[in-house]
Amino acid sequence: MATREKKKKASRVVKGQELEVEHLTEIADVTPKQARALLRKHGADWTKLKDEAEDLKQE
Questions:
Q1: Which of 5, 8, 23, 35 is buried most, with the most CB atoms less than 10 Å from its CB?
Q2: DSSP class of residue 30?
Q3: Cα separations (Å) of 17 from 2, 3, 58?
Q4: pLDDT (tens digit, 9 = 90+) per residue, 7-58?
């Protein structure tokens, strides 16, 4: 049961990260859903986040 809880929490952006989601959507012109996915995948590696967001915009 604990494993399910960990997965559930890992799939959500922490409340404090909502500011990061907003910031990423503004600077990279991606949707909030895309920004959350990028933050879950790369954490606070802003160089990687920006590169990945640029790739999303080109698609």
A1: 35
A2: -
A3: 23, 23, 25
A4: 444 455 566 678 889 999 999 999 999 999 999 999 888 899 999 988 987 7
- Here the tokens at position 18 are 């909502």
Structure tokens at 49: 């986040």
> For residue 32, which of 41, 40, 42, 22 has the smallest C-alpha distance?
22
Q: How far apart are CA 28 and CA 14, in angstroms?
A: 20
The span from the first CA to the last CA of the chain, in angstroms, equals 38
User: Which strand (E) or helix (H) includes residue 54?
Assistant: helix 46-58
pTM score > 0.85 for this model? no
Rounded Cα distance between 42 and 37, Å, is 9
Contact 24, 42 (CB under 8 A): no
